[in-house]
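for the writeup, i need someone to sanity check this before i put it in the appendix. the sequnce is what the collaborator sent (i think, or maybe the updated version? ugh). structure was predicted straight from it, no edits. if anything looks off just tell me and ill rerun, i have time this weekend
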Amino acid sequence: MTIPEEERAPDEQRLGPVLRRRDQVQPGTTDQRLLDTEGDSEWVHTDPWRVMRIQAEFIEGFGALAELPSAISVFGSARTPPGSPEYETGVELGSALVEAGFAVITGGGPGAMEAANKGAREAKGVSVGLGIELPFEQGLNPHVDIGVNFRYFFVRKTMFVKYAQGFVVLPGGLGTLDELFEALTLVQTSKVTRFPIVLFGTAYWGGLVDWLRNTVVAQGKASEKDLLLFHVTDDVKEAVALVTEETGK
């Protein structure tokens, strides 16, 4: 029986830039394989696919934030209750940063992050929230004007540093400490330059600073000059003045 001409396997096949001939010809087309919904879906959980998701998150973040004006990232606890003195300080700080010409970037969540976003929005500035996928996350707070949600912490951290000219760190927990020490390490190792870091709240941060000085530096695990990588204050105006001066704004 003769095989109809249209059903014969071709001797030569072009798949995009790839040329296949003779027994290397593959059945079907690239589009056909793309659109075929049958088969194992386990591939979406493989490392190559994760790499594509990571790349996509970087692209989305860069695209959303590339045109931001000068900005300051504000960190702090998601558990800071609305109406508390710490919350109101966050609102005041967000507003003061906008008045100084900065956009305000936070983690986009509740508590101190919401407070800083609220202050920025009420001052009619640019209020940015960079959220993260967590089992207990409530989504971006209502005061965020530009929001990006991330799957991966390390992509989100890159955005905090890349699109900010400095950090102001309100009282916070483990996530806040993580962001603080990441920034300190980047400055210490000269991965970023001219990057002011302000810790807000001498009573809250005092114990940490004493430990760094009396234990870490005293035992030679860091140098005395590393204590100059950050400032500690209780005054919103001073915090804004410090980031303004060091960024040359």
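Residues 47-65 form the longest helix (19 residues). Confidence is low (pLDDT under 50) at residues 1-6.
thx in advance!!
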